[in-house]
Amino acid sequence: MNDFAERLRSAVAHEEPLLRAIADSSAGAGPGVQRWSKKQELGHLIDSATNNRVRFVKASLEGRFEGPSYEPRGWVDLGGYAEMPWAELVALWKALNSALATLVSRIPEERRTAECRIGESLSAPLEFVVDDYIQHMQHHLDHILSREQVRSYPSAKQ
Fold first, then answer.
1. Long-range own/partner contacts, residues 25-29 (CB < 8 A, 24 or more apart)
2. What are φ and ψ of residue 125, in 5° steps?
3. Could you report the per-residue pLDDT of 110-140, keeping only the tens digit for each?
4. Between 59 and which of 4, 65, 141, 155 could a Cys-Cys bridge form, CB atoms 3.0 to 4.6 Å apart?
5. Distances in Å between the alpha carbon of 114 and those of 33, 34, 49, 67, 155?
6. Gap between the Cα atoms of 41 and 22, Å rounded
7. Hey, which bits of 27-105 come out as E strands?
8. What angle do CA 87, 88, 93 make, to 5 degrees?
9. According to the model, what pLDDT value does residue 158 have?
10. Under 8 Å CB-to-CB from 48, ≥6 apart: which residues?
11. How far is CA 101 from CA 41, 97, 151, in A?
12. Are 12 and 94 in contact (CB under 8 A)?
């Protein structure tokens, strides 16, 4: 799992200064009813980190995870991310993902294949769930940072 942990650490180190360079006013500008502002999209990544932390820990300790998915729009709305200062959101995103990198580096090798079932999805090994989390995060960071080629993410709805 060290390769996944290193990918997370590397993403945090590379992306955090780019996120900090975004002005609070720009981060809070809403693109419309069906889309999120940059603040809300980063808030979604904060919620994703929070939910995935539980999944990673339970699968590592218990040898499997079965639990609900979560409703992103509701979580983002309740989180109040649109009203928070951008610098606080970036700091929280950084702290959560740095902690996740440490957690992932400590997952026992024999738990890489622990079965995880999230909501109604098919069961997948923990290493797939960790990799999927990193891809999901990078997809949204590409969007937030307005990169020309946003990485494809199979289940992206944003």
1. 27/86, 27/89, 28/82, 28/86
2. -70, 150
3. 999 999 999 999 999 999 999 999 999 999 9
4. 65
5. 39, 36, 19, 14, 22
6. 13
7. 64-67
8. 100
9. 34
10. 133, 136, 137
11. 21, 6, 21
12. yes
Q: What is the pLDDT of residue 30?
A: 75
Question: Which uninterrupted H or E stretch holds 150?
Answer: none
Q: Which amino acid is at 128?
A: F
Residue the block writes with tokens 């997809």: 139
Structure tokens at 48: 């994703």
Q: Which amino acid is at 121?
A: S
Closest CA to 10 of 86, 92, 100, 128: 100
Give 2-23+35-144's CATH code, choosing from 1.10.3720.10, 3.40.50.300, 3.40.50.150, 1.20.120.450.
1.20.120.450
**Rounded-to-integer distance, Cα 157 and Cα 80, Å:** 21
- Rounded to the nearest 10 degrees, the angle between the axes of helix 38-62 and helix 72-79 is 110
- What is the per-residue pLDDT for 2? 87
